[in-house]
Design goal:
The chain is α/β, with parallel strands linked by helices and 282 residues long. It has one domain: Rossmann fold, CATH 3.40.50.150. It is 40% helix and 19% strand. The mean pLDDT is 94.
């Protein structure tokens, strides 16, 4: 099934927490001089125009990046996230960068970018967008492949340093189980790499099962960060989303502890909440 199109959801609160964590993580990892390999298992098209029919049909960005566009608060992580999105715009909010473009803007000359997208149309759009906008075209590799399988084929990375983003659409229930299986295999191949897992809370039970699978996997040093814009519900629809990070930067937990309450106050309903937890110790 390949029906999911991120163009309907670009810039929503789920993107806010995903890309804020991505920016904080890559900013930390690129402080070291040694090359880094970035692997994105479900890349989408790389950048999204918010004037398109898809974005305007749902207007989810109005509940996310649009509410932060004039951010004047004191939290550097939120300010850095907004500033990064503004780099792709000319004053007004017109486009939203996806994970491949956000990562590309933070990576360096010697850092490779491996981008997987299985959807035929989106894969072609991703390739064209990266050719047009990437700062390091020769270090960017777009593959129309299953990202779960492609990831395992690249580990361990030749650079011996790696950062992985796994963010499937979870449009089929087996994706939750597949994420845990893939992460366990990836960790066996490369236990020093940073792995980021994005997840949506549509059913809390599925997230509980996924968390338990990772906690009981033998993987060390796992943190979880979640932004809920409303309380858990039995009704259809996403109420929250989060990032599970394996081998996170040592600064990430404190950063998220500080900025998640602010994000809840800016983006959530009265019954919104956040989570910032060390699921497994080092």
């Amino acid at each position: 099934m390949l029906s999911y199109r991120h163009s309907f959801h670009a810039g929503n609160p789920a993107d806010v927490i995903k890309h804020l964590v991505l920016i904080e993580t890559l900013s930390y990892l690129t402080k070291k001089d040694k090359p880094l390999e970035y692997i994105d298992t479900h890349s989408g098209v790389g950048i999204y125009r918010l004037e398109t029919a898809e974005a305007q049909k749902t207007q989810e960005y109005l509940d996310g990046i649009a509410k932060l566009w004039q951010y004047q608060g004191d939290h550097n992580a939120i300010a850095n996230y907004v500033a990064k999105v503004k780099q792709f715009n000319q004053g007004e909010l017109e486009v939203y960068p996806g994970s491949p473009m956000v990562a590309d803007s933070l990576l360096r000359d010697d850092d490779k970018r491996w981008l997987f997208e299985l959807h035929p149309k989106d894969s072609e759009s991703l390739k064209n967008n990266m050719v047009e906008l990437s700062t390091r075209r020769k270090q960017t590799f777009v593959r129309k492949e299953n990202g779960f399988q492609g990831l395992l084929g690249l580990l361990p990375p030749k650079a011996k340093r790696g950062c992985v983003l796994i963010d499937p659409p979870y449009e089929i229930k087996s994706d939750y189980e597949q994420v845990v299986k893939t992460v366990k295999k990836a960790y066996e191949k490369f236990n020093s790499g940073t792995i980021m897992i994005w997840y949506p809370v549509v059913s809390r039970e599925r997230i509980d099962i996924m968390e338990a699978g990772l906690i009981n996997s033998g993987i060390r040093n796992i943190q979880l960060f979640e932004l809920a814009t409303s309380a858990d519900s039995e009704e259809l629809g996403m109420t929250a989303s989060g990032m599970i990070v394996i081998n996170p930067p040592w600064t990430l937990k404190q950063t998220m502890d500080e900025c998640l309450p602010e994000l809840v106050s800016l983006l959530a309903d009265d019954d919104g909440f956040y989570r910032s937890e060390q699921l497994v110790e080092e």
